[in-house]
């Protein structure tokens, strides 16, 4: 009998009675980071599925930030966590206090302190040639010498060129809070974008879908017309009710003061609450 039939190198086919006690009571062996990762699953060729003895993880190299709950020992997701479970100073999450207030009082802070100026985006209008906000623009104005090769027609360095490559297309229209907006040009550009978008959608959509969209548009217009009529009818009803109420108040018959008798003094011409003599001078 050969030795390969008697000895089995794969020990995972056997189980012991104390393994359940170790996993349930002590908590060892659950979601351990020492388990091997299935290389076939990473290549997309694993056919074992849930029966595979190795670990199936997705995008384990794309976890660029360390899990903040794992740092405190409170992460319950284990291997299913979308963040990194290892102590790496280059991949620590950003410090909230430094990003909010610009300073951190903790000298031993393990989180990243990122310079706020590095987060500012480059101004698309200034890169094209002119920004109307000037020095008050909230975006970054990067001054670069114009690349002569790019102006001639081609720069072999591409995006790695240290000189500036001016862009001739218009940036996307965005409302900026740092300065006044030209409402005429903004409205005109927005209308042009909407017209182009609707024209492209009509060209791409099939005729059946266009008929369905037209039918929905007609239904919406009909509903809006009905709501407008109901609103007008409600306003007319309220106006009629107010006019009727005012008409009743105008034509209400009140008794004249000459017919009113005061029960305190017994004289006519005023009410008891307006009696000048009072209750004690009736007789």
TrEMBL record:
The record's Gene3D superfamilies line, in alphabetical order, gives: Zinc finger, CCCH-type, Zinc finger, CCHC-type
Spell out the molecular function terms from Gene Ontology. Answer: RNA binding; zinc ion binding
Q: Which residues are in the CCHC-type domain? A: 262-277
Positions of the UniProt region annotated as Disordered: 166-255
| Ranges of compositional bias, category Low complexity | 200-227
The Gene Ontology biological process terms listed for this entry are: mRNA 3'-end processing
The record's principal subcellular location, in a coarse class, is nucleus
Keywords in UniProt for this one?
Answer: Metal-binding, mRNA processing, Nucleus, Repeat, RNA-binding, Zinc, Zinc-finger
InterPro entries, per the entry? CPSF4/Yth1, Znf_CCCH, Znf_CCCH_sf, Znf_CCHC, Znf_CCHC_sf
Q: Where are the zinc fingers (C3H1-type)?
A: 32-59, 61-88, 89-116, 117-144, 146-168
- Which family would the database say this protein is a member of? Belongs to the CPSF4/YTH1 family.
Role this protein plays: Component of the cleavage factor I (CF I) involved in pre-mRNA 3'-end processing.
Q: In its UniProt entry, what is this protein called?
A: mRNA 3'-end-processing protein
């Amino acid at each position: 009998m050969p030795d390969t039939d008697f000895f089995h190198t794969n020990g995972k086919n056997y189980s012991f009675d104390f393994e359940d006690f170790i996993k349930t009571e002590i908590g060892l062996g659950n979601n351990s980071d020492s388990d091997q990762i299935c290389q076939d699953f990473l290549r997309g060729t694993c056919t074992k599925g849930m029966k595979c003895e190795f670990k199936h993880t997705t995008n384990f190299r794309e976890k660029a930030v360390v899990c903040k709950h794992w740092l405190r020992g409170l992460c319950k997701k284990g291997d299913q966590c979308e963040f990194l479970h290892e102590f790496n100073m280059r991949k620590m999450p950003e410090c909230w206090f430094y990003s909010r207030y610009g300073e951190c009082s903790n000298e031993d802070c393990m989180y990243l302190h990122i310079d706020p100026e590095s987060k500012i985006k480059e101004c698309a209008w200034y890169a094209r040639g002119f920004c109307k906000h000037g020095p008050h623009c909230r975006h970054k104005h990067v001054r670069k010498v114009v690349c002569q090769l790019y102006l001639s027609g081609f720069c072999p360095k591409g995006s790695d060129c240290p000189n500036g490559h001016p862009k001739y297309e218009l940036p996307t229209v965005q409302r900026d809070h740092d300065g006044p907006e030209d409402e005429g040009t903004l409205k005109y550009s927005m209308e042009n974008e909407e017209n182009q978008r609707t024209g492209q959608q009509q060209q791409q959509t099939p005729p059946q879908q266009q008929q369905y969209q037209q039918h929905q548009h007609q239904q919406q217009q009909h509903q809006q017309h009905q709501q407008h009529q109901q609103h007008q009818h409600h306003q007319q009803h309220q106006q009629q009710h107010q006019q009727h109420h005012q008409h009743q108040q105008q034509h209400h018959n009140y008794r004249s003061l000459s017919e009113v008798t005061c029960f305190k003094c017994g004289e006519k011409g005023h009410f008891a609450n307006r009696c000048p003599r009072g209750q004690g001078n009736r007789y």
